[in-house]
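Following up on my earlier thread - several people asked me to post the actual chain instead of describing it. Fair enough. Here it is, all 257 residues.
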Amino acid sequence: MCDLREAHAKRYISRLPCYNSIFRYFEDEILTPHLQLLIEESALPLQVLESSFAVDSSGLSTSKFVQWVQAKHHDPKLLEARDWVKVHLMCGVKTNVVTAVQITDRFAGDSPLFKPLVEATGQNFTMAAVSADKAYLSVDNLQTVLDHNAMPYIPFKSNSDPAKKTPNPTWHRMYYYFAYNQRYFMQRYHERSNVESTFSMIKAKFGDSLRSKTKTAQVNEALCKILCHNLCCLIQSMFEFEIKPEFWQEQQSDQFR
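Reply from S.P.:
Thanks for posting it. Predicted structure:
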C-alpha cells in the first residue's frame, strides 16, 4: 500500500485503490492475457541486443499443501510437501529478459511447451540460436527452431541412435552435427545456464513462493513476478547499453487506461 500511496501522490494513478483490489484482480482470468502481453512488450526494447535464447522451467511453491488423502494412499512422501506451479519461460542470454512465458501445474511436461515459447519469441525477435537441455529433445522441437532460421543447441541423449530412429533428415543432420562438433556445440549449449540465472534473479528479488490460494490468482501472481523482473532488466539495460525504451503510441495506450 505504501507503493500505491506514493504512485497516487505522484499522479501515476488517478485514485488510491482498496487493499483487497489487487487480490480481486488476481482472481480474474481476464487479467492473464494482459499480463502476458505486458511481459512481451517489456522485452521489445531489447530486440537489438538479444539474438540467442534459452528455455527451461522451474517451480514456485504455493501456500497450499498437497492433499492429505492423495499423499496417504498414493505417495506418502508427499505428506509434508507443498504444492507448486511450474513456470516455463524463454529468456535472452545477454540481458536475462523474459521473452515468453507459460504457467502450468506441477505435472506438466517441459517438451510440449517448447514450441509455443519459441513461436511467441520468434514473433518479436530475430533468433540466431536457442539452447535447452535434453528434456526438450524431439524432432518437432528441433524443426521448430530451424523453421525460425535459428540453430537449436539441444544435446542428444546417450541412448540416441540415428540407426534406430525413424528416418528423419532433421534428426540425422542435428545428431551428426552434435557428434562431430562436440566442443563448439557444448560451448554454445552452455549459454543455457543463463536461464538458470534468470530464475535465480526472479526468486531472489520477488520470492520463490506465491501467496495466492486459487489457481487463477497463482498464475497471475507468478506472471507479475516475471513482469517486475523484466522491468528490472530493462532499467539496467537503459544504463548499461544506453537504450531508450519506446512502447505503444499515445493513441494506442489510451485503450488501456
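Residues 87 and 103 are 5 Å apart (CA to CA). That should answer part of your original question.
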